[in-house]
TrEMBL record:
The lineage of its organism: Bacteria, Pseudomonadati, Pseudomonadota, Gammaproteobacteria, Alteromonadales. It comes from the Bacteria. It comes from Pseudoalteromonas rubra. InterPro entries: LbH_gamma_CA-like, Transf_Hexapept/Carb_Anhydrase, Trimer_LpxA-like_sf. This is Anhydrase.
Length: 182
């Protein structure tokens, strides 16, 4: 199963796709982007690794219409903010991720916005439509909802287990899509 998607180069940097990655032909990946094994990037996703880098972990899915970007370096922020997404993460439809760090086993609900210098620890659910303002840290093991986001309650065992199940469901779906390409 091979994806023929190549991405676009920018300043001599071209997206790097590991084995078993699926990127829909309508997605746009530009520049310094790394996508690790068994991950998927779905229709109409726009990801620009132009003024910093984007890293997407293993078994992570970025769903339709999401936008991934980052923050350039400046005098007050010499390293800027890259976008780093961990393993087994589900990024729902039309999510905006900008210069933030997501740990492992996270679900970002549809239409959520996660801003610069946010750190989301492992095992977190961010509700649909949530706004996570800059410089926030979301603690592991909780559901966060609202605009601006607030910690709602601890996740139960079923919800924590579902985080890996959601990611695995998308691994299976992208394998189906890849088999259609061969």
């Amino acid at each position: 199963m091979t994806n023929k998607y190549k991405g676009r180069s920018y300043k001599s940097k071209t997206p790097k796709l590991a084995a078993g990655v699926y990127v829909d032909e309508s997605a746009v990946l530009v520049g310094d982007i790394e996508v690790e094994e068994d991950s998927s990037v779905w229709p109409l996703v726009a990801a620009r690794g132009d003024v910093n880098f984007i890293k997407i972990g293993k078994r992570t899915n970025v769903q339709d219409g999401s936008v991934l970007h980052l923050t350039r370096s400046s005098a007050s922020n010499p390293d800027g903010y890259p976008l780093i997404i961990g393993d087994d993460v589900t990024v729902g439809h039309k999510v905006m991720l900008h210069g933030c760090q997501l740990g492992n086993r996270i679900l970002v609900g549809m239409g959520a916005i996660v801003m610069d210098n946010v750190v989301v620890e492992d095992d977190v659910i961010i509700g649909g439509g949530a706004l996570v303002p800059p410089n926030k840290r979301l603690e592991s093991g909780y559901l966060y909802v609202g605009s601006p986001v607030k910690q709602a309650r601890p996740l139960n065992e079923q919800e924590i287990a579902f985080l890996k199940t959601s990611a695995q469901n998308y691994v299976e779906l992208k394998d189906d899509y890849l088999s259609e390409l061969d």
